[in-house]
Amino acid sequence: MLSHRSNEKEILDLGPDYYTEEEFTHCQKMLYRINKILGFFHGTVNVLKTGGEKAHVVDVGCGAGLFILNLSRYFPKMTFHGIDISSEAINMANYEKSVFRSDTSNVKFEKMAEPKLTFGENSVDVILATMVCHHMSNEEIIAFFKQALYTTKDKVIINDLHRNSIAYWFYRLFSQILFSSRLITYDGLISIKRGFIRQELITLLEQAGMKHYQVKWCFPFRWRVIIWKK
């Protein structure tokens, strides 16, 4: 079952006809908490500390924007730009920005007209993609890697899931106890099945022509991929 990446669609990928506004809002808030528990957030903080303090960071697939809103607390001199193809996500992100308890003048959100990067060459410092690549096909991931490297001056930071049978069965056993949302329980299992093993990531990076990269496994069952411009 987990020997190859799944092509199954998550409910979120099917669009707003398949879930309610309340489900979407609850799911987005829970996803940020899960990303924090899994270590995606603090791992990203540590990587950003190695860059320029005034870096321009673009968060691809920003969802409700909570990831970069909270990053802005750690890096008040950086500029954060969240983009997403979902109108619902951008509307929620702008709402979360309006009620956020810290200064958010260095954060903005924008709906993408199409599911690809359209920024100019070397136009931003850092491209960030957290729990985004597993939603893509292999061909889309290769195209994204190329677009991201073209766009960034410095690096691309990718956080995503390790496809692993232990992670899958653990999540299957406990997610329905811990979470009430089907967008978390059902989609979470699909996400794991759409995740990656190390060699798949390396193959995709090489097929995209990436020369300077790091693929690091992080506890629990997650990957951090960094692609450097040079």
Which structural category fits the helices and strands?
A: alpha/beta
Radius of gyration: 17 Å
The beta-strand count equals 7
CATH architecture: 3-Layer(aba) Sandwich
Topology as a string of helices (H) and strands (E): HHHEHEHEEHEHHHEE
Biggest sheet, open or closed, and with what strands and sense? 7 strands, mixed
Structural descriptors:
about 230 residues; alpha/beta; Rossmann fold; 9 helices
Descriptive account of the structure:
The protein has 230 residues and is an alpha/beta fold. The chain has one domain: Rossmann fold (3-Layer(aba) Sandwich), CATH 3.40.50.150. Helix content is 45%, strand content 20%. A seven-stranded mixed sheet has the order 3-2-1-4-5-7-6, with helices on both faces. A hairpin with a 3-residue loop joins strand 6 and strand 7. Helix 7 packs antiparallel against helix 8. InterPro entries: Diverse_substrate_MTase, Methyltransf_25, SAM-dependent_MTases_sf. It comes from Psychromonas ingrahamii (strain DSM 17664 / CCUG 51855 / 37).
Question: What does the secondary structure layout of this molecule look like, with pairings?
Answer:
Elements: H1 11-14, H2 21-38, H3 40-48, E1 56-60, H4 66-74, E2 79-84, H5 87-99, E3 107-111, E4 124-130, H6 138-151, E5 152-161, H7 165-178, H8 182-193, H9 198-207, E6 213-218, E7 222-228
Parallel strand pairs: 1-2, 1-4, 2-3, 4-5
Antiparallel strand pairs: 5-7, 6-7
